[in-house]
Amino acid sequence: MTITKKQITFSQAINDAIQTAMAIDKSVICYGLGVTDPNGIFGSTIGLEEKFGSQRVFDIPASENAVTGVAIGAALDGVRPVVVHQRSDFSLLTLDQMINNAAKWRYMFNGIHSVPITNRLIVGRGWGQGPTHSQNLQALFSHIPGLKVIMPSTTYDVKGLLLSSVFDDDPVIFLEHRWLYNQVGLVPEGDYRIPIGKAKIINKGEDITVVGMSYMTIEALNLIAVLSENKISCELIDLRSIKPIDSKCIIDSVKKTGNLLVLDTACKFGSVASEIITLVVEECFSYLKQSPRRITLPDFPVPTSPALTSNFYPQDLKIMEVISEMLSKKINHQKQERPPISMHDIPGDWFKGPF
After folding, report:
1. At the N or C end, where does the chain have fewer CB atoms within 10 A?
2. Mind listing the pLDDT tens digit for each residue in 200-246?
3. How is domain 200-343 classified at the CATH fold level?
4. Which residue out of 133, 143, 177, 344 is catalytically annotated?
């Protein structure tokens, strides 16, 4: 059987996943602030209301905690809600519902009932949206037993992981980095699903293991060719699933390379990077050639001012610098200067969007 594939953007792949899920199962609904807006949340919800009707696709009042409670009630009655809060920051208003109800229901009722909610949350900064609109909160969500946390990095993965999330019987936090929305990739048409909890080895290597997530995986991917030219064999792992985490994939890789660098989109203290390093130290300490390293955001709120953002966000050159230090090897490369605006709100001129 020939599987048709098409070149689409990250946001189109999200839209495709929701359309596919809603066509498969009439119990799937999609709602949230701006879902029926003409811009369709970076285009990810455009056309859904027209195709599936306002009973299954609709906008909501700005009352995140209440609409999450509605989703929990609906999920317990057989509905599979896809709830869009746009910003991960806005979802903080839903924590009582998600932590004390959705995440605990299966445990409190001996597995008889589950709460199959998918919460789509956008992370990352843009257009001056700093401290309260840009936070990467994957570590916070992954600390809660009963919640599954997903952070796709590629166009192919975002569709397959979103479909798996919608049809998973547990509540899922689905984190999408705004810088990825215009990324283009080859995506199969129709229904395909990527198992939750499985990392992906993007590049095999022998010298160092680099574990990335979301946008930082793409930053690392930009370096593979340069590292190869400098005789450095890098094994790049895209985490994809924050919780559950693919411990075996990471441990097997570190046992081979003896070196570990973790790239996290969030601040350092209590981060997912911290958890991965702890895992490796506990499970394969004797294989390590040196202390593991991590690259994260600093431990203070995301800035809005261009003067503060210029050195706030680590990119590929920072990753290269740390790998060079870890392996005690100079890396020759042609440094390509980026315009200052690319390090403030957007990664480059290609980044467009309604928000």
Report:
1. N
2. 999 999 999 999 999 999 999 999 999 999 999 999 999 999 999 99
3. Rossmann fold (3.40.50)
4. 133
Do the two domains 5-188 and 200-343 of this chain adopt the same fold? yes
Share above pLDDT 70 across residues of the chain, in percent, rounded to a whole number: 93
The CATH code of the domain at 5-188 is 3.40.50.970
133 is catalytic: yes
- Global pTM reads 0.93
Q: What residues does each domain of the chain span?
A: 5-188, 200-343
Q: What angle do CA 135, 344, 235 make, to 5 degrees?
A: 70
Nearest to 312 by CA among 301, 320, 321: 301
